[in-house]
């Protein structure tokens, strides 16, 4: 099934003849369907908002792993439904416009019961920008796993480390780890200073390691570790 194609069937019209009860009923039915589509789009937008994502938020980590801090399957299904409904909405608006033109073009329109005017549709964009943390050095990501023989392992990263600085990326500019991904791509084969918080027996300590992203180390990605957003 092509989610980019509208699923709204063509509306029944009566050419350019005088409006009949059937045409008026068809237009009113289209308006009702348009209202229902708008309501569902709003509800689906709330689903994305509840996961703190939008239609463009990455569902994978910078190293290619599915994110484990969100319900990826639900978000993908919701996005697919939103795409289809947006196309349906555009098709419905086109059909409504054509139907209204036919009604207005009829000489008998003034004597008939007018179709209630529809307010102009405005899409409400959901603001999912994360609230910035107060401190630049606040932890923003967690190292979940580290592969043996990987650049991350060689640098000294450990599972459980909380990332505070990753090169130029910190708590106020990580863009839900998108900026971290760019930092890795821009520094292949070059050293990146990584500041992490690590829990020790006597409390948490800060550790700075030198990480060199590279391909061909024998595993997936350029780091060999799984990092997720806190």
TrEMBL record:
In this chain, composition skew of type Polar residues spans 1-19
Q: Which SUPFAM superfamilies match?
A: PDZ domain-like
Q: Which residues form the Nas2 N-terminal domain?
A: 29-105
Q: Does the keyword Chaperone apply?
A: yes
Q: Biological process GO terms, please?
A: proteasome regulatory particle assembly
The record's keywords, sorted A to Z, are: Chaperone, Proteasome
Q: Name one GO cellular component term.
A: nucleus
Gene3D superfamilies given in the database record: 2.30.42.10, 6.10.140.1710
Return the protein name.
Probable 26S proteasome regulatory subunit p27
Supply the source organism for this entry. Ascodesmis nigricans
Q: What does the organism's lineage look like at the top?
A: Eukaryota, Fungi, Dikarya, Ascomycota, Pezizomycotina
């Amino acid at each position: 099934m092509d989610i980019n194609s509208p699923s709204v069937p063509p509306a029944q019209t009566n050419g350019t003849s005088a409006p009949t009860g059937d045409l008026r009923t068809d237009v009113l039915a289209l308006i009702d369907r348009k209202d229902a589509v708008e309501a569902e789009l709003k509800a689906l937008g709330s689903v994305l908002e509840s996961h703190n994502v939008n239609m463009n938020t990455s569902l994978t980590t910078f190293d290619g792993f599915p994110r484990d801090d969100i319900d990826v399957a639900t978000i993908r299904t919701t996005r697919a439904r939103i795409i289809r409904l947006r196309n349906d909405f555009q098709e419905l608006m086109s059909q409504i416009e054509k139907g209204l033109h036919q009604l207005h073009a009829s000489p008998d329109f003034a004597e008939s019961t007018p179709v209630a005017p529809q307010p102009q549709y405005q899409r409400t964009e959901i603001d999912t920008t994360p609230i910035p943390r107060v401190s630049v050095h606040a932890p923003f990501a967690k190292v979940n796993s580290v592969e043996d023989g990987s650049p991350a392992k060689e640098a000294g990263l450990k599972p459980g480390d909380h990332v505070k600085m990753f090169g130029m990326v910190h708590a106020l500019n990580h863009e839900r780890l998108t900026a971290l991904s760019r930092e890795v791509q821009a520094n292949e084969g070059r050293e990146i200073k990584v500041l992490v918080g690590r829990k020790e027996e006597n409390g948490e300590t800060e550790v700075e390691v030198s990480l060199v992203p590279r391909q061909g180390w024998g595993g997936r990605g350029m780091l060999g570790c799984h990092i997720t957003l806190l």
